[in-house]
Amino acid sequence: MPLDERQRLKLAIAITGVLALVLIFMIWREIRQISDLQTKIADSETKLSDLSIEVADLSELLAERAFLEQTLEEDVKILPDEKEVADFLYTLDDVREEAKVSPNVQCKPQLFTTLKPPKGSGLVPHTWELTVDGPFAALVKFVNLFEIHEQFFRVDGFEIKQSLDDPDERNMKLKITTFTYEPKGKDAPK
């Protein structure tokens, strides 16, 4: 049955309407997908910005760590190694001779202790308690030579008393500490 012109017009309007609805639905779906993508892009850009800041912070931290490692490496050069700690009596004798104290000066290490290092420091303290007899000026020079020695020695304390036998002689008890460095982690010797 042939359609008259009015029916054909209604059919064309109906088909156009359906096509318009389908087209509107497709456009709406695409706009929604574009909006979702824009939100994801914005979130990704925020994350990228945050990561860039973290990378910059990490770069600064790595540079600071490298600087601190270099500083530590330079600073521990003044610390004696285990052999030098073992040879402390030779160092002690050299300092005694350099202080130009009389040969009758007695220098006796009374106590040697190796203490537990502070956690995470890698620095192991070694302490000696000494008794030294001699003239006051020589004893002061003796202490000073330890304080300015090329290796690190710390004079923790001393006590000077006048000798009962000789008014020019003094008796000094002295506590000296040095440290050795035992690196932890990746710097530790294998």
Q: Describe it for me?
A:
The chain is 52% helix and 23% strand. Strands 1-2-4-3 form a four-stranded antiparallel sheet. The chain is rod-shaped and about 145 Å long. It has helices at 5-75, 82-86, 88-98, 136-147, and strands at 107-114, 123-135, 154-162, 169-181. It is of the alpha+beta class and 190 residues long. The protein folds into two domains: 1-78; 79-184, Alpha-Beta Plaits (2-Layer Sandwich). Strand 3 (154-162) and strand 4 (169-181) form a beta hairpin.
In brief:
With 190 residues, the chain is α+β, with helices and mostly antiparallel strands. The protein has helices at residues 5-75, 82-86, 88-98, 136-147; strands at 107-114, 123-135, 154-162, 169-181.
Can you tag this structure with a few keywords?
single chain; 190 residues; alpha+beta; Alpha-Beta Plaits; 2 domains; four-stranded antiparallel β-sheet; 4 helices; 23% strand
Low-confidence stretches: 102-106, 186-190
User: What is the domain tally?
Assistant: 2
The CATH architecture term of the largest domain is: 2-Layer Sandwich
CATH-level-4 superfamily name of the largest domain:
Ribosomal protein S6/Translation elongation factor EF1B
Quaternary state reads single chain
Q: What's the CATH first level of the largest domain?
A: Alpha Beta
Number of helices: 4
Beta strand %? 15-25%
H/E element order: HHHEEHEE
Q: What's the arrangement of strands in the largest beta sheet? A: 1-2-4-3
Structural class: alpha+beta
